Amino acid sequence: MLQPGHISIARHGPSCEPTKFLSRTWVENIFVKNGTDKFLELGTTVERAVKEGDECVLTLRKEGPGKDYWWREWFDALVVATGHYNRVIVVGGSVSSHEVLHEILPQVQHPVYASIRVEPIPAFGWAPFKHPHVSIKKQISSLDPLTGKVSFADGSELNDVDHIVFGTGYTFSLPWLPRVQERISKAYRRLPGVYQHTWDIEDPTLTFVGMLGGGFTFRVYEWQAVAVARHLAGRANPLPPTAEQRDWEEQRVAKFKGSKDYYSIAPDYGSYLEFLRNIASEPKPGTTGRTLPPFDKKWLDIWKGMVTYKIRGFEREARRAEEELIRLKPRL
């Protein structure tokens, strides 16, 4: 069975660079080999180090479930070998933000700060963020480019932040399509003048794939691609009249305004995939075109199962971290 640090070697061969897992194992083995592991104090932050007489006094802090533990220790000398830790803020409450958050948790300084404006994505809720090494903050209100200070809407502040990761989704920007970009600049966080998130209403030879969200990501992109390819090849069923397409957009704007709700296909996955399948129609006899199968409700069960599986994984990670904090609780 592969150890975590050997996965890269298995994938990319023995010449790949050492991973952090291998480096950590190497350092841990040095302590164990020399019997000095009993002096290790892990999961601990040095909050302050001052010289009092001939001794160095360290103020130490260890995170615990619900509260932190603080204490002081005295030493004859101090060696500063902290390396370059990273203090990170991850902005956003959707899939990309919590995926990044959990990828970097084992590698960066704790806590990692999650800046969330309102509520996280409903499918996952707060589960990805309920972790003893994750500190939840309100939205960022300002950044000071000179000092690096980050201010939040609740009045709290953070200094010495190394990285801010924006996992907030995106506002459409297509500067290389000036005509479309001009329309975008006049709309609220959406791609206007596009029917069913795919066909430009003014010019249906201009199409968009992937400008939507809400789930079934890659399957929807595939259905879009097939429908677009067949439409451009003149082998698809016709699009509705332009007036009907504009009516679809107007109704959607009235209901959702803009932002992520406008281009989310949830929870109408079935009807949207079936619409694309109907436009695509069947491939021409004798060709190798893709036949799109009818929507199967089992797909929705599989997708929901994936979400449930991930949520349980986040919960397991949080429990392990809490247990580790309890195990490392200093004996005061």
Notable characteristics:
332 residues; alpha/beta; FAD/NAD(P)-binding domain; 4 domains; elongated; disordered N terminus
In terms of topology, how is this protein built?
Elements: H1 7-12, H2 20-34, E1 44-52, E2 55-64, E3 67-75, E4 88-91, H3 95-104, E5 112-115, E6 134-137, E7 140-143, E8 150-152, E9 157-158, E10 163-166, H4 178-185, E11 194-195, E12 199-200, H5 217-232, H6 242-256, H7 259-262, H8 269-280, H9 297-327
Parallel strand pairs: 4-5, 4-10, 5-6
Antiparallel strand pairs: 1-2, 2-3, 7-8, 8-9, 11-12
Helix pairs in contact: 5-8
The helix/strand class is alpha/beta
How far apart lie the N and C ends?
A: 40 Å
Strand content: 15-25%
Trace the largest sheet across and list its strands.
6-5-4-10
The dominant shape is elongated
pLDDT below 50 for ≥5 consecutive residues: which ranges?
1-13
Biggest pleated sheet: 4 strands, parallel
Helix content: 25-40%
Counting DSSP H or I runs of 4 or more residues, the number of helices is 9
Number of domains: 4
Secondary structure tally: strands? 12
H-E order: HHEEEEHEEEEEEHEEHHHHH
Mean pLDDT over all positions: 83
Radius of gyration: 26 Å
Tell me about this structure.
- This protein is of the alpha/beta class and 332 residues long.
- The chain has 4 domains: 1-31, no CATH class; 43-83, no CATH class; 88-169 and 308-326, FAD/NAD(P)-binding domain (3-Layer(bba) Sandwich); 188-295, no CATH class.
- 35% of the residues lie in helices and 17% in strands.
- It is built from 9 helices and 12 strands.
- Strands 6-5-4-10 form a 4-stranded parallel β-sheet, covered by helices on one side. Strands 1-2-3 form a 3-stranded antiparallel β-sheet, covered by helices on one side. Strands 7-8-9 form a 3-stranded antiparallel β-sheet, with no helix packed on it.
- Helix 3 (95-104) links the parallel strand 4 and strand 5.
